[in-house]
Amino acid sequence: MNNKKLSLTLLKEKYCVCRLNKDDEIPSWVLKGEFYSITRTEDELSIVCVQDNLKSKIKCEKNWKILKIDGPLDFSLIGILSKISVLMAENEISIFVVSTYDTDYILIKEKNLEKAIDILKNDNYKVIR
Fold this sequence. Notes:
Residues 60-121 form the CASTOR ACT domain. By secondary structure, this protein is an alpha+beta fold. The chain is 16% helix and 35% strand. The protein has helices at residues 80-90, 113-122; strands at 7-10, 15-20, 37-40, 45-50, 59-69, 95-99, 104-109, 126-128. Strands 1, 2, 3, 4, 5, 6, 7 and 8 form an 8-stranded mixed beta sheet that branches. A hairpin with a 4-residue loop joins strand 6 and strand 7 (104-109). The two termini are 24 Å apart.
């Protein structure tokens, strides 16, 4: 990655990461909100969605906040997630990442958010709230 630091925008909602069975239907409540991600594999159906929309008792990790890397990012860029992942790992902050065609979304537990933002700012990233 070049030396230019990126900016990240904090999404306003609180999110959850859910696990459903691989053959389950996608619940309609998932599709509400400014961000959701649905991934089906041969093993599971994983969903990231606005926590307040959660309507059933399913296996779920709650209280995530999302930092969106402002993009779009070119596919030729190298090391963006690696650098941020290392920064978080060095400070014992677990992350969950969702990548799209244009950019990456970094999920951080709400209890670690302020520490993560401070770490990013100290490394010259711009964080927009």
